[in-house]
User: What shape does this take?
Amino acid sequence: MAVVDRSARVVVTGLGVLSPVGETLEDFWDSVVHAVVGTRPLQRPDAADFAGRLAGEVRGFPAVRGTGDRVTRLAVAAASAATADAGLVPWAGDPARAGVCFGTLLGSRAALEPAVTRFHRAGAHGTATGGADAPAVQPPPVVGLADAVAREHGFLGPGSVVATACASGNSALAYAAEAIRAGRADVMVAGGAEELSAGIMMMFASLRSLTDDALRPFDRNRSGLVVSEGAAALVLESYEHARARGARVYAELAGWASACDAHHMTAPHPEGRGARRSLERALAMAGVAREQVGHISAHGTGTPSNDVVEAAAVRAVFGDGGPALSSLKGALGHTQGAASAIEAVACVLALRDGVIPPTANLVDPDPACPVDLVYGAAREAPLDVVVNNAFGFGGNTACTVFTRPGLGRNAG
Amino acid sequence: MSTSAVITGVGLATALGAGYDATWQGLRTGRSAIADVAPPGGLYPGRGPAPAAALPDDLSDVSAFGRKRLRALSRESLLVSRAGLLAWQDAGLDADGAPAPEDLGVVLGTTGAGLTGYLQVLHDGLTLGTDLVSPYAGPQGSLNAAVSDLAIGADAQGPVLTVTAGRCSGAEALTVAGDLVRTGQAEVVLVAAVDVLDPLTLDAAGAREPGAGGVPAAGDAPAGRPARTPRPFAPEPTGSLPGEAVVVLVVEGTGRALERGARVHAEIAAVGTALGEAGDTDGAAATRAVATALAAAGVAPRDVGLVCSSADGSGPVDRAEAHALGGAFGAHVPVFATGAALGDCAGTTTLLQVALAARALRCGETPATAGLADWSPTLPRLSVSGAPQRCPAAAAALVLTTDDRPGAAAVVLRPPR
Amino acid sequence: MPELTTPLDLEDLRATIAEIIDVDIAEVTDTADFKEELDVDSLLALEILVTLERKYGTKLAESNLQKVRSLNETYALLAEQLEAS
Assistant: This one.
């Protein structure tokens, strides 16, 4: 047990996603491939201060917060879809050998909002606050997100919630993959989840990051991002475990890495040093050559600074003739802590189908972003290796590398 | 999980003192730092002071790695930056042997980092208007701000992660750091944990008090103590009280530390974590975490010479740990618990325990356990004392942290070789 | 709900800006360039704008960020805004 099997390979055997463009795997993928835009003027009554601002809601998902915690329900729904897709329900193995890791920006903090809002609104109107001197609510444990998924499945293995802001989904995949590689678990459900809330809208509004036009990744006229919600989960297994149970293998999670800009809380490093390092290290771990990479699912937030820095980092790593980039955020908006988990699902489906989805809302590519952008329509291409970029606030960057199952590698 | 990583630097602050030495000396006296604490931040009127263990001082005379513009930083960010510098200096990395920036990782465990900032955003947005929310407050209100500020201060350009798993968050951070060092993704990792008192938790602590408002009930606290002290392992648990702390450990590969001649606090022999089933009342998760960690470390129970328990006067935690520790070690291994002295320090609990257990291992003596009263007749008896206990030449120390998720984490430490 | 607002005063404004950008009050001379001389990045400039909006109870459009370049220019911008309102 103390011996670490460094060669334990990590494969993807199940996928689940709930997004503003689809609440099942195939609906989501169909929308993404056809560049369906899922962001609309916000109508949620619990975000009345932002009525009419663009946002991306998971529309079919049981209404507004209030009865329980929406982000947790989103996570459980995505995880349950993924484990069903993987044929793991019910879990018949050792409960201690299966675990959960989710990434998030704010997690269940939005559950505080109704009570805090009531408290402040009552104060503003000079009405009694029911004798309260503070909002009568306790911060829910953030790890409850992962624990709810674990309880749903009867898993008692490694369980945590991780945060690297908007790179949290990739970080959850990395945490889960390390747990498998180090022999702490056979199966991990990893993903990301975020819910729309007034608080998250306030945070991005205060940074003047929101656009009222549309989220246009890499476009000359990009003007900011649109906040969205969603959840995605991937079932990761050791290759041995997947083979032993005869599971369908979508892809191998062959590489992952994170790095910090160590530069600024909100602005990316001008040369994208964290982004570049994450890319290079994830590719090195995967043991693939640069030219094998056919597609990058870009972070592509549609903010002036991210897209130009990301394009520069990609060019620095791949040079001329690099892989085809697209950003899902044009279609989905920015689902924050869920974003790179949802994008990871798309990476795996791109590998499966040999299809690179187009970047929705991208019309006029910015010459300052000199990379091979896919827009207008999906591009068909046989794919062996796909990379998922994610770069969050605080200069927290994380990349993952997915390969076609059975692809020969020169390392591992 | 097996690791070959060692702790070469410690920086911390607790309610008993600003620094490793001050905290250690405070614990030896058996004193509790619980006192009446005013609600922080001025966000809400609050019900007035509540009993808690607050930092006496936010390491204000320590530089945040020479950073300026500290006003923009949350307390969490400031504390990890300052404790980070203490750990960095303690490890001697300021003199020599610092890794290249890209080989320095940062991992932080927390349950609530950024919560006060998030409440500030809601406060400003709801009372002043959404246009008047401070642009600084938003990013400081997210979970990963503190680790990002630590990275900026320390110029750590390697792997970065914030991990949360209740009171076991620090154990998760150690596990991640161990992976990073073992697989060569980082040479040195700053493993941090921070949680500060927030106005909601403090308000709730006040509300639970007999005669709410933080006024001690008649005959409760001895004279001179402003508030009651939690009573670990007592027959009728009165509950834990909230605390706050910051810890930063410098973790690096054993070989690297030897090569540079670093002073080693302890070797991290193994970390084991476990979740329990709902209704786990007799410590099944804690028992499993202890067994996993001992097995991974290759350490027999008889080699464990001292234990740091996370018992803090909350019934479920104390019960789970008494069963797990009694089962594994019987009644003869010296056990100490800091929860009555330092409060329930949330996501910092495990790393605090690790730092203190490492010190006890080196000194051959545990600190006192504050708040001991009668021992619950329904719990297995452990060797816990209101005074320091000798434990010379212990081959290993065990840290056990329990959380009511329910879940538990155990860390096995070995003395420097 | 607006906060109680403050009348405009150059020395008070100097102190306020020094506090926001966390520098010695003497460094905020009448003409010191925030960006070039006091190392104010765009996030900090935005923080100045929002803090002044709160303090003086006025709305400073984001397009005014360019005018928040020195104490004198900021004072002039505020005077103009407060006059107009």
